[in-house]
Amino acid sequence: MNRGARVFFALWPDEPVRAALHVQGRRLHAELAGRLTRARSIHMTLVFLGEVPDTRLEALHGAAAGVPVEPFSLLLDRADCWRHNRIAWVGPARTPSALAGLVEQLRARVADAGFAFDPKPFAAHVTLLRNALCRALDDAIEPIEWAVRDFVLVRSVPEAGGSNYAVIGRWGTGELK
């Protein structure tokens, strides 16, 4: 039997950004209730692939290795809540062209390598609450500046209380294979 991995590419924050995002999550939680994202799980999904056979993970690493990473600054300066899925999130008021380009290149390389992925249009956001009681928010937040230097491949392992995430690849500065 071929085991599989539930995987996605993401931006993975450093500790100061993760801590600032968790503080913002607690603020939103006080207002909207719901289930707070664990600090160690905070990320921005770039390309969600879902279930991938373990035997194909090396090919996925190869596809990602061809994506250049130009460092850029990501300003998270807006909060909102999607009523259709009850997700409270923060994100940029404007998606930087470097971020949109990174997602575009990742999608192209992944598709060229024969992988399927979630084709929904990219919406730059960091999920901070699930099952939130969405209502109108003051969407302006204390801005969080995120210096993006790399992206990661993450394996998701479902468990009670949410998924546990493990970074299994990193590309950009400080690469991890």
**Secondary structural class:** alpha+beta
**The CATH C-level class name:** Alpha Beta
Estimated share of beta-strand residues = 35-45%
**Alpha-carbon distance between the termini?**
26 Å
Helix percentage range? 10-25%
What letter string, H or E per element, gives the SSE order?
EHEEHEEHEEEE
Overall, the morphology is: globular
Number of domains: 1
pLDDT averaged residue by residue = 92
Overall radius of gyration: 16 Å
The number of strands is 9
Low-confidence stretches: none
**CATH architecture tag:** Alpha-Beta Complex
Stated plainly, the CATH topology is called Cyclic Phosphodiesterase, Chain: A
Give the CATH H-level superfamily: Cyclic phosphodiesterase
Largest pleated sheet: 5 strands, antiparallel
- Counting DSSP H or I runs of 4 or more residues, the number of helices is 3
Strand order of the largest sheet: 2-6-5-4-7
Describe this structure in words.
This protein is an alpha+beta fold and 177 residues long. The chain has one domain (4-172): Cyclic Phosphodiesterase, Chain: A (Alpha-Beta Complex), CATH 3.90.1140. Helices cover 24% and strands 40% of the residues. It has 3 helices and 9 strands; from the N terminus they run βαββαββαββββ. It has helices at residues 15-32, 57-65, 97-112, and strands at 4-11, 35-36, 44-53, 72-82, 87-91, 126-130, 140-148, 150-159, 162-172. The strands form 2 sheets. Strands 2-6-5-4-7 form a 5-stranded antiparallel beta sheet, covered by helices on one side. The protein has a 4-stranded antiparallel beta sheet with strand order 3-1-8-9. Strand 8 (150-159) and strand 9 form a beta hairpin. The two termini are 26 Å apart. The model has no long low-confidence stretch (mean pLDDT 92).
